[in-house]
Design a protein that fits this description.
alpha/beta, FAD/NAD(P)-binding domain, Alpha-Beta Plaits, 2 domains, 10 helices, 29% helix, 23% strand, globular
Length: 413
């Protein structure tokens, strides 16, 4: 077993993990990022989400709410994707992106800041002493490798460190409904709105004729994805998400079977879609929320709906509470138009382990609150802030309160 030493370890190479790695490296520290997949981007690329939410104000106009690294990331992604923001009738705005552009941007940033990369790696053990994480052990290509650290940031989306260390967590019996994204080629030439309408009418007709199950009505076009006779769709999966041992496998198998059934029906029964074929299915099922770590503060439903502001704020958040169940329509709960809530730094630091920080989907939040705070525009902000807090934990070891000794307002403007 080889042993390596780093200042900061980042677990998870999604939007939060990339932001955390860049943020920590900007402080002049040695940083290693560990990712279970063979590429970066997290759910943005593995589940091919297709749009970045949470960048803009909840408003009738497309105005950015985020600043600093998050806005720079979004601007670069927009240029690389050759895309433009899209708005809907709820007053919500989001940025479509290219999956490959997202992967490439992540790699470019990690290279620019000379961050050590470990892909295809799984964390299997955490070693703690005196309320601090001293090292982790990972499995990489059938080899075990131990890495010591001075601070650690969990951006896994699954609270891996808290689970392995048996720390307090926020969990539920079941979680929001999952979806599977897939891409169809050979679509007819028409604008995106008409394509969506024609597709939905075809599915409704099939359901009424009992040629497709009613669950197929939970099919949605990924807005901004239609280019050159090709578009991506997401299909709600009619199984509960409980994160048990075989749950992801069952979700995936169900989704793949339904997608093939849908393609066959459209191709053989609807003249408009006679030339289509399945281009590909995203590598992972899109699970929206999971287990969260317990921090020094837990973001709540009231914090979001009352648009609460905090003294130690590290993120400005504009997305409503968005809950996907097994019903066809998403449940949205809004705060006041033109307002926003904030996330405090205390949601990003463990209340048990002094050098453990969180970013992304596993920050300390209730089930309802994370239904808003999970979107990428917010994950980029919490990840970047976690990097600064973890670096500060190393640089200001004589400081009792890591949060109070950092200029948090610089993260927001």
């Amino acid at each position: 077993m080889s042993i390596h030493h780093q200042d900061i370890i980042i677990i998870g190479g999604g939007s939060a993990g990339i932001a955390a790695a860049v943020s920590a490296a900007q402080e002049g520290l040695n940083v290693t990022i560990i990712e279970k997949n063979s590429f970066f981007g997290g759910k943005a690329t593995s589940a091919e989400v297709g749009t970045v939410c949470g960048l803009f104000k909840y408003s009738n106009t497309q105005d950015y709410l985020v600043h600093g690294f998050t806005r720079e990331f979004a601007n670069q992604l927009q240029i690389l994707s050759n895309s433009q923001p899209i708005s809907n009738h709820h007053g919500l705005h989001f940025l479509p992106y290219s999956i490959e552009a997202f992967k490439n941007l992540c790699l470019d940033l990690l290279s620019q800041y000379q961050i050590k990369i470990l892909l295809n790696s799984n964390v299997i053990e955490v070693d703690e002493k005196n309320n601090q994480v001293e090292s982790i052990t990972i499995e990489l290509e059938n080899e075990k490798r131990t890495i010591s650290c001075r601070s650690i940031i969990d951006c896994s989306g699954e609270s891996i460190v808290s689970q392995l260390s048996e720390l307090p967590i926020h969990s539920n019996d079941t979680y929001q409904a999952a979806a599977q994204v897939f891409t169809i080629d050979g679509l007819p030439e028409m604008n995106e709105m008409n394509l969506n309408l024609v597709m939905m009418r075809a599915i409704q007709k099939a359901i009424q004729s009992q040629l497709l199950d009613q669950h197929f009505e939970r099919l949605y076009l990924v807005l901004g994805s239609y280019h050159h006779h090709q578009a991506s769709f997401k299909l709600g999966i009619p199984l509960e998400v409980d994160h048990s041992a075989n749950n992801l496998l069952m979700l995936r198998e169900t989704a793949v079977k339904m997608i093939h059934e849908l393609i066959a029906y459209l191709k053989n029964n609807i003249e408009t879609f006679k030339d289509i074929h399945l281009q590909h299915i995203a590598p992972e099922v899109g699970t929206r929320v999971g287990i969260r770590s317990q921090g020094r503060y837990t973001l709540t439903l009231d914090d979001v709906l009352e648009a609460k502001k905090f003294d130690h704020a590290i993120a400005n958040c504009s997305w409503p509470i968005e809950e996907w169940g097994q019903d066809r329509k998403v449940k949205l709960r809004f705060f006041q138009l033109d307002d926003y809530y904030q996330i405090p730094a205390e949601c990003l630091q463990s209340d048990k382990i002094s050098n453990l920080f969180f970013g992304g989907r596993n920050i300390s939040a209730t089930n309802e609150a994370i239904a808003s705070a999970r979107v990428m525009g917010i994950c980029l902000q919490t990840g970047y802030a976690a990097g600064k807090l973890a670096a500060n934990c190393i640089q200001k070891q004589d400081e009792i309160n890591v949060i109070r000794s950092i200029q948090l307002n610089q993260l927001l403007y």
